[in-house]
Amino acid sequence: MHGTKFQVVHRAYGTDGTKPQVPKVEEQENPVRRDTVAVDGFGSVTIRFLASNPGAWFMHCHMDWHLSAGLAMVMVQAPEKAKEVLKVPSYVEEQCRVWKKQSDHKVRGP
């Protein structure tokens, strides 16, 4: 996940999620923080992070065909702070007008 360091708090393998999992973060004195994690086929990973880095951050799979299948999302962190510190470039606002899309969405406010 771009823009964020996270902790893996749960990992499940296979479709039933019963295989070994990572230790609980609460039981770790200094848990590992990372910005990438591999997820096995049919598996899942639960992460924990502090959403305090203002902006829109991309979370995605690095396999192109997964990405084109929709395995990606944009997570907005600290939207009120983002409005204060980030400026949308005028060429982006112009593109939005050309595409007849709203350019002042939730990150920028009303």
UniProtKB/TrEMBL annotation:
One of the Pfam families matching this protein, by short name: Cu-oxidase_2
Entries under InterPro entries matching the protein: Cu-oxidase_C, Cu-oxidase_fam, Cu_oxidase_CS, Cu_oxidase_Cu_BS, Cupredoxin
Record flagged with keyword Iron-sulfur: no
This protein's record includes keyword Signal: no
Name the record gives this protein: Plastocyanin-like domain-containing protein
Similarity annotation: Belongs to the multicopper oxidase family.
Keyword set, alphabetical order: Metal-binding, Oxidoreductase
Residue intervals of the Plastocyanin-like domain: 1-80
GO molecular function list: copper ion binding; oxidoreductase activity
Domain of life of the native organism: Eukaryota
